[in-house]
Amino acid sequence: MEAAQTETPLAEQDESETAAHSPAAPSLRVGIGYDVHRLVPDRLLVLGGVRIPHAQGLSGHSDADVLLHAIIDALLGAAALPDIGRQFPADDPQFEGADSLQLLDNVLKLLTERHWRIVNIDSTILAQGPRLASFIPAMQAAIARTLGIEAMNVGIKATTTEGLDAIGAGRGIAAHAVALLMHDPSLQDCACIPPR
User: In 49-177, where does DSSP find H-type helix?
Assistant: First the structure.
């Protein structure tokens, strides 16, 4: 004798579907970011919040940290917020020589106010030189500390362009980044930002 088959009542199905699409349900957002700056003499080279010994540094209004700028745009994009150029205008004197880790901290506050929690970040630095592999752990630590996340959730790779284009000619450095955010209603205000 076959067991009687039971069907989920339509009302329960509708209720389940509604719950899956309700504001309380987990919501994930992906953002991408890109930045490039020219290498020039008489500037410090800062990448991922870490000073890198090099004969040249990146030109820019702030510290010109292309990695952090790409990450900032990825985070802002995931939250559908205005990009880094509108958040921190290049013609605003208060951002002249700004530490990009501080800009990243400001972006974290914007995200937290809107209940967005950072799940993870992945990024790639494009540079013909200097070699960056040995500096990556320090970059991961600086970014993770600023954002209140684990360093294992901050991916950073470095590669060359095999001598192609302006990057390959050593005239600049670029970075790409991707960020994943999760909507978290428990983040009520900036006081909920994890301690750093």
Answer: 66-78, 84-87, 100-113, 136-147, 165-168
- 22-36, 97-111, 159-173, 175-189: which range is least confident on average? 22-36
Question: How high is the pLDDT of residue 97?
Answer: 82
| Pair 39, 172: CB distance under 8 Å | yes
Q: Tell me the CATH number at 105.
A: 3.30.1330.50
Helix axes 136-147, 100-113, angle to 10 degrees: 40
pTM summary value: 0.83
Distance between CA atoms of residues 169 and 61, nearest Å = 23
Examine residue 1 and state whether it is found in any structural domain, yes or no: no
Q: How far is 181 from 64, CA to CA, in rounded Å?
A: 25
> Residue 97: left (phi > 0), alpha (psi -120 to 50), or beta?
left
Domain that holds residue 113: 25-192
